[in-house]
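Histidine kinase
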Amino acid sequence: MEPDYNETERYQQARKKVTEIKEFYQHLTVFILVSIILIVINLMTSPGYLWFVWCLIGWGMGLVLHGLAAFNLPPFFDKEWEAKKIREILEKDNNKQTWE
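Structure:
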């Protein structure tokens, strides 16, 4: 009896997705811990200038993008957009060939 490659592929894809989500949560945990440390350092050394905000904004944007990718929530270029763009390009290509 041959193994069901479809089922194996589905399992591997699911396992990869779980790993991506786990890595996001690890990233989030490190972000929170380091943010707390940066805030404490900033407030102890130079409370007049809150420089930690810039670190959190930059890293936070990266964290948001990581989360969007991990949970398949890309804000712009999702699979629907890709399919639409492919159809557009193919239509342009077909129209170009008919005029030549």
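The chain has one domain: 5-99.
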